Amino acid sequence: MPPLILQYWYTALRWRWLVAAVFGGMLLLGLLATLFMAPQYTAEVQIQIDRQQKQITMVEGVEAQTTPQDLEFYATQYALLKARPLAERVATTLRLYNNVAFLDAHGISSDEADAAEGGSTQKAREAARRRVVGILLANVEIAPIRNSKLVDIKYTSRNAELSAKIANEWARSFIATSMDRQYASTADARKFLEERLVTLRARLDESERLAVTYASRNGIVPLSETKDQDGKTISSRTLVGTELEALSAALNEATAARVAAEARSRSASEATNEAVISSTLASLRSQRASIAAEYAKKRVQLEDGHPFVRELAEQLRSADAAVAQETQRIGRARSNEYREAVARENELRREVQALKGTFDQESKANIQYSALLRDADTNRQIYDALLQRYKEIGIAGQVGVNNISVVEPAAVPTSPSSPKLLLNLAIALVAGVVLAAGLVFALDQLDEGVRDPNQVEALLGLPLLGITPIVPNDAVEEIADVKSHFYDAYFSIRTNLDFATTHGFPRSLAITSTRPNEGKSSSALSLAVVLGRTGRSTLLIDGDLRSPSVHHMLELENGKGLSNFLAGDDAWSEMLQQTKFKNLSIMATGPTPPSAAELLSGDRLHLLIQKALENFDNVIIDAPPVLGMTDAPLISKATEGVVYVVESAGPPVRGVRNSIKRLTMSNGRLFGAILTKVSLDSLNYGYGYGYGYGYGAKYGEGNSSGTPS
Known about the structure:
Blueprint (H helix, E strand, L loop, with lengths): L3 H11 L1 H21 L4 E9 L20 H12 L2 H11 L5 H5 L5 H8 L4 H18 E5 L5 E8 L2 H58 L4 E6 L5 E6 H28 L6 H5 L1 H23 L5 H91 L6 E5 L12 H26 L7 H7 L3 E6 L5 H6 L4 H13 L10 E6 L6 H14 L4 E5 L7 H5 L7 H5 L9 E3 L5 E4 L8 H5 L3 H10 L4 E5 L8 H8 L2 E7 L5 H13 L4 E9 L1 H5 L25
Parallel strand pairs: 7-14, 8-12, 8-13, 9-11, 9-12, 13-14
Antiparallel strand pairs: 1-3, 1-6, 2-3, 4-5, 10-11
Helix pairs in contact: 2-13, 4-7, 4-8, 8-12, 9-12, 11-12, 16-17
């Protein structure tokens, strides 16, 4: 089987005149459409759409600056460029609703518009507005430039100036619409924040009031608070806590003083630090030392009873008494100091214990107070954040910054953009290809006959014995010419039938087809002629009792024949007629019987074949068609086998299959099929007729002298 593309090519060639007619008609239609189309002018304005707005202020607007997908952003912008509200804004700005020139520029007359509107009512005006908006949307084209931020806005009409005017206004309206949308979103955000700020302010005041009331009710006097970087209260100093801290420090100092005083009170009076550093005691001791020195000196010089010595002794006793008295005074002072330190320590300890009870109660109350403070801090943070955002949005909304700008405004076009002859012809040609392909495919599907020789075995389940061409002359004339392609074809079929049985060419053979005029009679005669020319005596019996044709082909009589023998006349040899072909005799049908099926249902046909084979090498029967009759199945039982003739592009495959099934059910043996009436064009298209014939269809035509090639 040829490649699939070659099959398509062969199919197109088979319907080439239809394809040519479709192509010609479509090209003519494209030419006429181009000539009758009004010129259209396209104006183009180019804009740039940035992903982010220019940052004029240091605060952000309400619109997000980035999104995860830029493709979604630009797809949204392209959709907004063809939105109906934008077209309505352009129509309103340019006053197109009642503009007759606008309608004329799009091929709509004012009379047609009035008729379509149907009056001047509100409903009619709405219809007119919808018509104008529909025209604008139908004639605008949004063409993004790939891998860039640029977008071309094109508008087409019959008026060049109007096209440029609408294109420029379309870009301006899109920019204005974008800015209006930003302003609207900012205003909505400010209104929302205002409402939320009022609610949050009331909530903040309530939370702070609850905290103050709770502190007052529980005696909590906060002195200072410590906040983290987020403004939340993490610690709070109260009056009780501060007093407890001060008393604790004083108690520690008193305890230390008491310990020190206790240590001093236990040491000897004269060995204490106060005794050492006391100036009074030092002076007294100095005076005593002077008196003692003078007393010792005088005792050496004078007697103990001397008045001066006794006076010095009295002074020495007085000095000792004074030193002892001062030392005792210092000891009493240390004792007093110790008692005072103990008393102070005890007093401070009692005060600390009392204040600790108060502090414990305050600490328990401070848990709820801390919760109230945290709630107030949270409300304050939310309020401050929303207030800051409210101020930022107010500033950003007042700055008219847009992310869309016009790169190149539209100029008035100087030449029409359409119609374009070459483009229209190309479109017509493509449409012609599609239409022709559809028609050829549909016709080829409706044509259920067998065309390709390779389809015979695939569709019918029979081996292909050979194919025969369509001949311009009579089949008898063609088979008589041994140099004709027709003769070569049947000689090839005869050769293939030599391998049908173990003894070679079947001795008795029936040839039939699905319906009349498929070439079965020509095939039967041609095979008989070929057999005769190869030296085999052959009898050709015309078995089509309903429509005989063999005697007409050979221009012989039909006085007596097969019907006579089947009716009981045993003189079968008298019914034979000689032909002009070598070793070929025929038996015509004879008179037409009332019921051919009844004659063929007996054993007389089988008897005739047996007697004929005693005198002939081969017997070939031209059987009637199978479809609608029982004659062919009856004949197939009496012969050694059947050759089935199928006309190229003839009967539907399903009919052929049913006929073959009938022959098989009657125990007929089918040797194969012959595909007849194949055009030479089909052979040239590659049907593979070269299996014994086709590839040599023109072989030797240039060798007119007959010299072997």
